[in-house]
């Protein structure tokens, strides 16, 4: 019994010593680099020996599901290990994306810890801000999907469910439509609205939509109401924003204001019409 205990103690000491030695080596390497960089008597002969602590290991250059599927490591005897709570959708999703050699497991605790515990190579989960992924040295790869689903029976039988879905669909579509779009407002001196509109529409970046919207700018001068300026409102994409501002300046625009758009609502939403058609319901503009 004493001998066994002594052996165990020796093994523990050896393991601790090995760990300490590794830490010391890493510290020495870091200190050596610092010394070399700051020492006029030393010179770095080779600075790319591929030593160091990898960030993502074999997944460093894998950024999409396609990249993941093309990795030669995965085989029937050595599949890609995935931790997920979506035990039905997970296998279906992976197979649809060309990943045939995959094993799935569920984690009692946070899924993000599974790769750190060496029980999974990847996780399949919902992501919000991505902060937890970064904290666990994980990265999100391209290929995930987001869909809005609803019960057909509920939509057909419950008007409240259909109305709520209509509202959500309208807001989502309007928000996606407004992504990357900006409202640009500028003041411009002119004798009449048509003359100002002609100057604005002569510029290629200012005439892409149905605008511009032109209205009088009123001010008070010598006790009287005056209107020497017109306000021009246009909608432009982000990539044409600065060019549009420049063109407004060229034709006499001043006090240019820019604000990002949150929603762009059209007369109707095509997806809403398609949804009603799929449900066998009649379309109407009032919903």
Task: Summarize the structure in words.
38% of the residues lie in helices and 18% in strands. By secondary structure, it is an alpha/beta fold. Strands 5-6-4-7 form a four-stranded antiparallel sheet, covered by helices on one side. β1 (80-84), α3 (89-96) and β2 form a beta-alpha-beta unit. The protein starts with a helix and ends in an 8-residue tail after the last helix. Mean pLDDT is 76; it is low at 1-39 and 41-55.
Shape: elongated
The stretches of 5 or more residues where confidence is low (pLDDT under 50) are 1-39, 41-55
Encode the helix/strand succession as letters.
Answer: HHEHEEHHHEHEEHEH
Tell me the name of the CATH class of the largest domain.
Answer: Alpha Beta
Which architecture name of the largest domain does CATH use? 3-Layer(aba) Sandwich
What do we call the CATH homologous superfamily of the largest domain?
A: Periplasmic binding protein-like II
- β-strand number: 7
Helical stretch count?
Answer: 9
How are the elements arranged and paired?
Blueprint: H1 2-37, H2 65-69, E1 80-84, H3 89-96, E2 102-105, E3 122-124, H4 131-135, H5 152-157, H6 159-178, E4 181-189, H7 193-201, E5 213-221, E6 224-237, H8 241-250, E7 254-260, H9 270-279
């Amino acid at each position: 019994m004493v001998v066994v205990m002594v052996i165990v103690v020796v093994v523990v000491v050896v393991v601790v010593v090995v760990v300490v030695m590794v830490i010391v080596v890493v510290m020495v390497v870091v200190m050596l680099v610092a010394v070399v960089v700051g020492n006029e008597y030393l010179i770095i002969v080779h600075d790319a020996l591929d030593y160091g602590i990898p960030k993502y290991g074999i997944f460093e250059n894998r950024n999409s599901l396609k990249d993941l599927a093309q990795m030669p490591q995965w085989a029937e005897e050595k599949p890609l290990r995935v931790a997920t709570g979506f035990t039905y959708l997970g296998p279906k999703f992976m197979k649809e994306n060309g990943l045939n050699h995959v094993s799935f497991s569920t984690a009692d605790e946070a899924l993000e810890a599974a790769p750190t515990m060496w029980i999974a190579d990847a996780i399949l989960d919902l992501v919000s801000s991505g902060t937890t992924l970064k904290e666990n040295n994980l990265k999100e790869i391209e290929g995930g999907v987001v869909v809005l689903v609803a019960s057909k029976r509920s939509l057909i039988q419950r008007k409240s469910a259909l109305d709520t879905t209509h509202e959500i669909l309208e807001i989502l579509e309007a928000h996606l439509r407004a992504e990357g779009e900006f409202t640009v407002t500028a003041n411009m001196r002119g004798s009449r609205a048509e003359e100002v509109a002609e100057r604005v529409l002569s510029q290629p970046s200012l005439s892409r939509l149905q605008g511009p919207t032109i209205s009088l700018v009123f001010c008070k001068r010598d006790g009287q109401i005056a209107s020497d300026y017109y306000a021009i409102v246009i909608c432009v994409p982000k990539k044409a924003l600065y060019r549009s501002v420049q063109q407004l300046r060229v034709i006499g625009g001043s006090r240019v204001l820019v604000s990002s758009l949150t929603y762009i609502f059209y007369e109707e939403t095509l997806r809403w019409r398609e949804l009603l058609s799929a449900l066998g319901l009649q379309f109407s503009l009032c919903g």
